[in-house]
């Protein structure tokens, strides 16, 4: 994964802050040329950092992905990490594991609440 700094991170920041958007708007927000943003969006899409979304195939509407949000959080480590892509993957796995644990904990609480409600209704 070869990111261009600061352009790629500026695009990710803009999508994170403003939500789904198109290249002309992203160019204005980031202060980069429309051509530059148009060239970088497909690359960021290939890296899985952004996703091209509809409604039409040629709409040019993009949104940041979970992977892109993790890349933003890790941006200070981009220059020093020997493998930034692996770093992102590790953080995603950690994040996914934490969310699974939280969901399981909530599921246990929800089940206990349901049992208590059943007992009270009898």
From TrEMBL:
Recorded hits in InterPro entries, A to Z, give: WH-like_DNA-bd_sf, WH_DNA-bd_sf
What Pfam families does its record include?
A: HTH_24 (PF13412)
Origin superkingdom: Archaea
Q: Where is the composition biased (Acidic residues)?
A: 110-122
Q: Where is this region: Disordered?
A: 93-122
Q: What organism does this protein naturally occur in?
A: Natronoarchaeum mannanilyticum
State the name under which the record lists this protein: ArsR family transcriptional regulator
């Amino acid at each position: 994964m070869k990111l261009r700094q600061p352009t790629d991170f500026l695009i990710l920041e803009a999508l994170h802050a403003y939500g789904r958007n198109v290249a002309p708007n992203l160019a204005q927000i980031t202060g980069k040329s429309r051509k530059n943003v148009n060239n970088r969006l497909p690359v960021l899409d290939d890296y899985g950092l952004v996703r091209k979304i509809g409604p039409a195939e040629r709409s040019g509407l993009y949104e940041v992905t979970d992977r892109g949000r993790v890349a933003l959080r890790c941006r200070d480590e981009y220059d020093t990490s020997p493998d930034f892509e692996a770093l992102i993957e590790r953080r995603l796995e950690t994040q996914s594991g934490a969310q699974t644990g939280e969901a399981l904990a909530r599921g246990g609480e929800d089940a206990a609440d349901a049992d208590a409600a059943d007992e009270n209704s009898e």
